[in-house]
Amino acid sequence: MAYHYARFGAELVITARNEAQLKQVEEKCVELGAKKVFSFPADMAVPKNPELVVQFALEKLGSLDYLVLNHIGYDPFQMWSRNAEYTSWLMQVNFLSYVQLTAAALPALIKSNGSIVVVSSLCGKIAIPYAASYSASKFALDGFFSSLRHELTMQGRDVSVTLCIIGMIDTESTMEKIKAVDIGTIAAYPASESALAIIKGGAVRAQEIYYPWWTAILVSTRDWFAETRDKMIRSSFQEKSKELKD
Fold first, then answer.
1. Which of 134, 189, 210, 211 is flagged as catalytic?
2. Model pTM?
3. Distance of CA 142 to the CA centre of its chain
């Protein structure tokens, strides 16, 4: 997404945990045509960091037009191990930090009539096995930001909220997670195309966008035959690991 925004000549502040990789992305964005690029290394598991990131962005840019929320914490693709502490940590990274970033950025976005772009997942609309904590965080995004959209409209605030429902994307982390599981005919889609779909959705201030296209059909029909749907979901995930077969 940063590279696409750079090609459009944007002024950017990017954040992630890895400072060295951030600097590489920053340099690439400049090469691609970004007017300004700044990076701020931060771990979103630390509750004070979201506000620090927004403060840094406002210091460097002076205002905000878009807040793009995309980061996730690592969640192994496996059955829930009853580790409630880990689920709590993932909720901080995947959900609460999104809320904290929004709280810090909202005054600036109200001034600019800006946009909040929330990257969610098909797992935030339809629950699947091996993703209980991840799905919980994504369902939470849907509830919070859909409610916030109502409230901003009722207050007469011209701030758009775009919820992005994304299927399986061929990122390195995703491909690594699903190695142990046979997911049948489900294909991973290009990260670059997904990123562009997200940016376009935010630019046109859409309420929701779906990528790839068929995710919209799944969501629209998810409650038609609930029992049959759940059986099909379970049959689509055939565990390859010897431990679970035994």
1. 134
2. 0.89
3. 11
